[in-house]
Every structure is written in C-alpha cells, then in structure tokens.
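Let's do one together. I've listed all components of the complex below, 493 residues spread over two lines.
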Amino acid sequence: MTRGPAFLGYARPDGSVGTRNHVLVVPTVICAAVVAERIAAAIAPIGAALPHLAGCGQIGPDLTVTHETLAAYARHPNVGAVVVVALGCEQVVAQQIADAARQAGRPAHIVSIQGEGGTPRATARGIDIARELADTLERVERTWCPVSSLVLSVKCGGSDYTSGLASNPAVGRVADTIVDLGGAVVLGEIAEIMGAEHLLAARASTPAAGAQLLRVVSRVEAEAMALGVDIRGTQPSPGNIRGGLTTIEEKSLGATHKAGERARLEDVVGYAAPITKRGLTVMDTPGLDVESVTGMVGGGAQIVVFTTGLGTPTGNPIAPVIKVTGNARTAQSMADNIDVDVSGILTAGEAFDGAARRLFNEVLEVASGRPTAAERLGHREFAIHRRNPTI
Amino acid sequence: MIAAIVVHDADNVATALEPINAGQTVEAGAARVTAIDSIPRGHKIALRDIAAGATVVKYGSPIGTASSAIAAGAHVHTHNVASARGRGDLHAAHAAPEVGIP
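Okay, and this is what the predicted structure of the assembly comes out as:
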C-alpha cells in the first residue's frame, strides 16, 4: 500500500511501472513499416507500431541511435510485449531488439518478411502472434503505484505569449511536485534552452551537471551558426513570432519554466538514452516536436505533458501526451486536441497553484488509464532524430 | 485602461493581453504607460525608453538587444530587437560549404 498520491499502473518484472500496456510492433527498417502498421492496426488500440524512416543506409552514430531508440521502446515500461518485424537484409538487427525486450522480462517474437515469404504471409503471421500477446496483456490488472515511479516528460510546441506566462509555469509547478514526491522529470529541446541556460545551470546538483548543460547548449548553438544563417526563421518559428515571441532567448526563458523552479538538475543525457536519476534530467534532443517527444519517451518517460499556445496535435505510439493550453481562443478553436485549459490564469484570475493542482490530478488520471485527446484521435507520431546523411 | 503583464521587477517590457491602440493608457504592474504604437495581443510594449544597443529584459533576463532606440510605449518586436544568440548570419567565418545537388 502506498502513501500519498498514487496512480494505477502496470508493475513490470524489471521494477519499472507502465501507464499503458501496449503490444509494440517494431519494424527494424522502413521497408517493414507497412507490415508492422497493419499488424498493430489488427489489435488496435492495444497494438502500437513504430513506423520510421531508418534502419538501413546509415553509418556511424545514426545507426547507433536508430538501434538504441528501437531497443529503448522495446523495453519501455508502457510496453507489455513485442513483435519485431524484419525485412531480412537490413542493418538493424531484429534479434537485438527482441533481446532488449526479453532482458526486461517482456515476451518478444520476430517475423521476417523475406523469411515468411512476402507481405501477406508475414502480415498474417504477425497478426496471429500479436493477437495472442494482446489476449494475455488484456488480462493484466493495474495496481496502485507511487508517483516516485513516474518519469514525466515536459514539452512545449506551437508556443505563443501564453506559453511562458501561463501554461509553462503551471506545468513547472507539477514538475516540482513530482520531483518533491521522488519522481523524475525530463526536459528536451536544447535550442530552446539557449538564453535560459544560466537559470538551469544554477540549479545543477553538481558542477559537472551544470557544466555539461552549458557544453551541450554551446554545441547546438555552434551547429546552428555553422549553417551561416540567422537562427530566427526556425527559432522562434514564424508562428511563434506572430504569437508575440521576438527572440530565441524570450522563447527559451518562457519554455524552461515548465521544468519547475526548485527541481535540481541532476543529469544531462544523450538522445533516447536512459533517464536514471530522480529529479530533473535534460535530454539532448532537437526542437522538432515529434523527434523530441520520441527521444524523451525512449529515455523512459511514461507520460508527457505538452503545452501549446497555438495548438498542436502531436501524440506518441506508446506514451499518453496531455495537451495544455494557456490560450483561451485555442482552448475553443482546437478543443478536440486540448486536454487541460489553464487560460483562466491570464483571463479569469485563476491562481497558478489551483491550475497546477488540476494538472497534477490530470497526470494521475491519465497515468491510470484515462485516454488523452491525442490517444482518442489516433495521434501516434514517431520520428527518430537523424544527424547524418543517408548513405 | 487596459492591462499588460509584467513578469519581473527588472523587466523593461510588458505583454499585452488584449490588442492595444496607440494613445491608450496601459496599466502594467505598478507602472502606467501610454501606447505610442498599436500593440497586437500577446506582443510587447516598452515600459520606459530603451537606448539603441541596450538590453531588453523580460522574465528578469535579457531577451535581446535594442537594434534602434525604443521609446516608452512603443511596440517591441523583431523590428527593433535583435537576438544575441545563434546569429550565424553575422559570423560568416563559421559558414559551412553550400549543400546542393552537384
């Protein structure tokens, strides 16, 4: 029996806790993506495919990142069983993805398109396996789990002036609460820390963590500058600028509010790398929303809180993404995509603490199984970050 | 009277929660300022004169540099504020070779 706030989750053999219990269907390579999607669709909504563009023609770091991201999803707390769909001649090794799942105590099977003899037979074989796995997973019951088992990803996208003034500070209070209760929070999007890194570095629990954050931000800024253009145009985006955000510094200062005010920065990790520390971790992800969420969920986040001023639909194949807006017009115009409206902070005098309490309760409800708008609408965006050319 | 939000005591700009017309008096925290430009919703108004080259401050931190003199009450945005970060266009020495189809 746990004390304090708790949620109904799936306790895994490796000690982690899931907020969902998916049969994950992983194509090793783009060539297997359609078969994987058809297998997952046959057992919707428990089936979740990871269609991606990679898996072959990659050398060096990109191949490693593809491999590690797929393996990270295969052993993710929100995944109860895995079907790996291989073509048969690709670079990504199906056996290694399946092994990652098995080492974490999840059943895993491999279906090879070349081995089965083509699309129809591989699809049929995959569906047979996936149905059996789904039958087993559907009998698993949720149990009460402590908030300390959560890794919360905080994210913003389609930002406008309301993001920094209302929704991000409200989410930041939730982030602080989760860390106070022994949980973990992950913040990505290094370009959107540019201009606010001094505030996060000052909260580092060790000099090494602070120095690492400053190094990563400098590297991303140097990469952007090496292209010889003004970063404005993408940071802030044209929509951000119309929404009143003038510079990347202004956007970043508003964006980092969602990582709380108190939570200490404990660690800085690479893309989709495991989040091992409680407290705040910064992950080296790009600012592109789907790549960023894909990486943070890969790192182990079981739930995402995503603020948006202008409105955006992004979801994830295996993690619920809660949409929060501080913009009253967006709350109305994109009501189908929004889970929590905190615009009262700016328009009706709602206190930050009250909005944060509503948000925290929403996190616990969604962690316990309530579908988000993105889940109801079938938003399952997935994109692995790439840095190098396809060879 | 129309309200604009000031986040931090050190800020020299405030954010308009509703569209502001030139000539309107704006209540921004403890300060009052008369708008000299129209300010769209969500955009910023200068709370005091900001000299060219001076730092524009919001959330208590620098958000850029005034690229021209900004008078109290003026619209503060990309036309008169320059970012100090990620400006590859100002650092041609960093320029990478052009990428294209040979």
